[in-house]
Design goal:
Helix content: 25-40%
Organism: Triparma columacea
Number of strands: 14
CATH topology of the largest domain: Acetylcholine Binding Protein, Chain: A
Protein name: Neurotransmitter-gated ion-channel ligand-binding domain-containing protein
Low-confidence stretches: 1-6
Number of helices: 6
Distance between the termini: 27 Å
CATH class of the largest domain: Mainly Beta
CATH architecture of the largest domain: Distorted Sandwich
Radius of gyration: 32 Å
Keywords: Membrane, Transmembrane, Transmembrane helix
Shape: rod-shaped
Length: 429
């Protein structure tokens, strides 16, 4: 946090501190206590257990603040056990350990010298365990392009309110960065020591923000403060695209090439389409072990069904083409009187219609549907549309950030980063 070392402060006698009510907020009734926050992102992973995708996340939030009543306090005496400190309360499933019971004692932020400069630090470890990501069913409709947003938050309570009134806290992400890390930002917003990938998933970005009540709730509007965290997670679709979607569309392309066979040779055309029909289900079998068991169609299911429909449509078109070209008395042997021109007219009509179906499937079923579903229930969902009470009551007004952890970022920083995220307006955070 900067400032002079403790050596410049004079050691004060115990009697100087005898009348201090340590459990009272340092600036009670005067101004909010400034909290400087650094988030340590330690670990995250997704495991697939009995058809459920379970998320685990752990890290810590470092709080730094100043209590001028401690200036000159002997370091060897330790922090007074009843000293005021922030009391965070986690959202459901967001475990903050002893800090939630007010049992976590802060430490002196600067330990050099013999006396305190009044600066304190409290490290609150947090974790979420076995969060069932499969409960967010709607996002699976975009499988394998599905994504989700996991929101967590804590609200900051004032453990001793006598003679005090909100707002109690002024939370800022403004701890000066290390000199050797200034290229990553002048402040330490996030101390990152995690990986980007886990199982099928990538961490697209890590969101963090200061929240305040936007209506009367535990105090007047914008006086009740909290910190929100968000994991923006997306499935890596490469396996399913290369082993499923691309082969399926290649099957439909092969089905179109069948129109280049002679219209009179219906047997050859039917044989090719029959083999392609079975190939569709063989392709699905490759990925079936990794597919979620869902009560509705996904993007991958829709593509498979469309390709089957295109093959049947081609078969129907070739039958119509054959009937249009064969002579009235039937077609046997070499079928010399077969009207090829009439058949080719119908071939062209059905081939163009089948091509339109392929283009429609790629554009609508894959691209548009994936985008539409992900916008509603994927990682791009804004904070206020989340499911918890804190999503509804606590909004982001001026301090919202996202740390984008893309491939370029990963190659540059690896598993160690200390720096800033990118500001994001509260309306879209």
């Amino acid at each position: 946090m900067g400032g002079p070392t403790t050596d410049v402060f004079e050691l004060k006698s115990p009697s100087h501190f005898a009348s201090v009510i340590w459990k009272r907020r340092p600036t009670a009734g005067i101004s909010p206590t400034k909290l400087t926050v650094v988030t340590c992102f330690d670990h995250w992973d997704v495991t697939n257990t009995h058809g459920k995708e379970l998320l685990n996340w752990s890290g810590s939030t470092e709080f730094y603040w100043e209590d001028l009543r401690l200036v000159g306090f002997p370091l060897e005496n330790g922090v007074p056990p009843d000293i005021w400190r922030p009391k965070p309360m986690g959202n459901k499933g967001f475990n903050l350990g002893p800090a939630e019971q007010g049992k976590l004692l802060p430490s002196f932020a600067n330990s050099s010298g013999k006396v305190s400069d009044g600066k304190l630090k409290m490290t609150v470890k947090f974790k979420i365990v076995d969060v069932n990501m499969s409960e967010q069913l709607d996002r699976f409709r975009a499988f394998p392009f599905d994504s989700l947003r996991i929101d967590n938050s804590m609200v900051m309570l004032n453990p001793f309110k006598d003679g005090d009134s909100p707002p109690f806290y002024n939370i800022q992400f403004d701890r000066p960065n290390l000199k050797n890390r200034l290229s990553d930002g002048i402040y330490q917003h996030v101390d990152w020591t995690a990986c980007r990938h886990s199982d099928d998933y990538d961490l697209v970005c890590f969101g963090y923000a200061v929240t305040r009540n936007h209506e009367e709730w535990n105090g007047p509007p914008r006086t009740f403060t909290g910190i929100a965290y968000s994991l923006h997670i997306a499935r890596t679709p490469n396996f399913y695209v290369r082993k499923g979607i691309v082969p399926l569309f290649l099957v439909s392309l092969f089905g179109l090439f069948t129109y280049f066979l002679e219209p009179a040779d219906l047997n050859a055309r039917v044989s090719v389409l029959s083999a392609l029909f079975l190939t569709v289900y063989a392709i699905q079998w490759v990925t079936i072990e990794r597919l979620p068991r869902l009560p509705f169609n996904t993007v991958l299911d829709s593509v498979a069904e469309t390709v089957v429909g295109i093959l049947i449509f081609n078969l129907a078109g070739m039958c119509v083409s054959f009937r249009a070209g064969r002579p009235d008395e039937g077609c046997f042997g070499d079928c010399i009187d077969f009207n090829t021109k009439a058949s080719e007219v119908w071939d062209l009509r059905f081939a163009l219609a089948a091509t339109a179906l392929v283009v429609w499937s790629i554009g609508y079923q894959v691209v548009y549907q994936s985008w539409k579903i992900s916008k509603k229930s994927g990682w791009t969902r804004p904070w206020p549309l989340g499911p918890t009470l804190f999503n509804k009551r606590m909004h982001v007004f001026d301090q919202g950030y996202r740390l984008w952890t893309d491939e370029i970022w990963g190659e540059k920083h690896g598993k160690k980063f200390i720096g800033e995220g990118v500001p994001e307006p509260g309306s879209t955070w």
